[in-house]
Amino acid sequence: GVWDLGSEGMKASRAVTLAALAVPILLVIGCLLAFHRGYGPRAGLGRVARSLSDMRTLPTILKAGAVRQLPGLFGNGNASMSDVLSLPAVGRPPRLLSSDRNRTARAAKTAEISPGDSDSHIHETPPSVRATTGTAVSTAGGASKGWREEAMKVARAAYHRVMRVKNCKEPNTAGGSLERINNTAWRFISTAANDVPKKCGGDDLFVQIVSAEYWEHVARVTDHENGTYTAWFDATCGEEARGNLTVILQFSVAQGMQMTRRRKRISKLLTNLTDVVIEGKKFPPLTPTSPEVAEASQAAAARVGLSTNNPAKFDQIFAMGDSLMNHVTMADWPAITTKRRLKFFKPFTPLNNYTLRPKFINSLVDQGWVKQYNEAKSKERICVLFNSGVWDILLMSPEQQAPYPEEELFRDHLESLALWVDSIKESFPLATLLWKETTEVHTHEGDCSFIKKEKQRSACMQRLEGMSSSAIRLLRELQEILLKSKGIPILRNFDLTFRHPAFTIPGDGRHYNPWLNNMMWNGWYYSDKGVWETQDLQCPRNFHVHFGLEKNVSAVGQGHPSFGMTILTY
């Protein structure tokens, strides 16, 4: 017989049918989105499965009273379903919600809670890394506290410098003049409108000499906090430097140190001097037959580095980081394509308390790296190469600072980095861990005017506004303090990118062309001292020898014309 389900029964039947159809559709959509974001098919299925698991455990969470973290859920209705799904699932450490972060900050400010007390509940233990068997492997011991005192001392000093500039309430720098101090140093005197001398600092200045051959000499700038700055060309290496000196203002009145992604970018040429000469030795022009070329080529072939072109120290490299890391690893293309020796994953996000678990820690398992490590016969011949930096500047959010005192700059990022390092160390105990240093950003080299679509041009401008040299230098210094305390070797590349802005991709300002990326990748090597070192390329002549080797031998001695503001005087 035919059952008469009635109207209510038909509605229930339709609901069950729709639910049954919705699950595979959601799985397919989720896998496609996950694959689009850089995850493999297996990793995509894993992430979707975890989302369904979170939905399955939702009644248990509600029953356990976890909703008390969301006072507005059944009250004024301000909390959303995404807030509920972000509540802690079974077997996972709690995630701090934005409402809790703000409430903690207000309570700490009202009750004058010390930094050590106010954030003690955020990371009681390092996040667990899920093992391939489904059990939880927790990182033991917690994040080391040895780095905090030193790092926060540096952060507070930077914060107070910013506050001194703000309290001056001076207008933006509009111009200035140069005075020569000695053979390699100049003093820049900043002025406001109508040539009124300024009494406070806070400017992000870029000072450079560019020769007629497009050789770059970039100065280190010291802010004396009285409106004057000293630009010192510290890397001429005793060789004569001749060209046009330019002073470019990137940000003024400490706008570069604002903890936000929308900084008031200026990127303006302030002044220049033509035909400037730094006296020194005169060397013969570099040519493909110069003796330095043969010496550099032989030394590069003998080094034990990361590249498969040299004697390989590792059977497998797991690289995880931002697009700068991706571009550098592309220098070893055979290891990615044919040999499959190098695997890369990009989290597509800054590193902070919100993104630590889903984007960084869980991905170690999602990518199959932990399983592959556990199955490896020689675990000592596996390397984990990781980094974070540029996105932490471009997408800086004031909310990340909420649980901590205002003067403890980048505290949220550093706490997350410490836990990430601990998780990697426990997941890969016998592997070699290497940190790729963050690179310099050159907002004055950026240009969005050629982008026709308004939405894309707006996104481009937002990224240029976030590219602060002063902020990324501070972040780099703080990261180094933490990583040294953890015993992680640092592969250097900041100085190389700081000194060669013309080698950025035209109009970009933060990504570098393939030849410079190759120089970074091939410049990291395992020395006879038993430590990882970075090839010294500070001297312009040495740099252009290796640049020619990377591009082609015929390019030895040739500079690279800039597409930004650094050679406007030519």
Q: If you had to describe this structure to a student in words, what would you say it looks like?
A:
It is built from 19 helices and 17 strands. It has helices at 6-36, 41-56, 58-63, 81-85, 98-111, 115-118, 146-168, 291-302, 323-329, 333-337, 356-366, 369-375, 390-394, 411-427, 454-466, 469-486, 494-498, 514-522, 540-551, and strands spanning 129-130, 136-137, 175-180, 185-191, 204-210, 216-218, 220-223, 228-232, 241-251, 268-278, 316-320, 342-345, 382-386, 432-436, 490-491, 524-526, 532-534. The longest helix has 31 residues, at 6-36. The protein is globular and about 80 Å long. Mean pLDDT is 77; it is low at 1-5, 35-44, 50-144 and 563-570.
Shape: globular
The main sheet orders its strands as 12-11-13-14-15
Major sheet summary line: 5 strands, parallel
The strand count comes to 17
Strand content: 5-15%
Low-confidence stretches: 1-5, 35-44, 50-144, 563-570
Number of H- or I-type helical stretches? 19
End-to-end CA span = 92 Å
Mind telling me the C-alpha Rg?
27 Å
Helix content: 25-40%
Average residue pLDDT: 77
Strand-pairing-aware structural class: alpha/beta
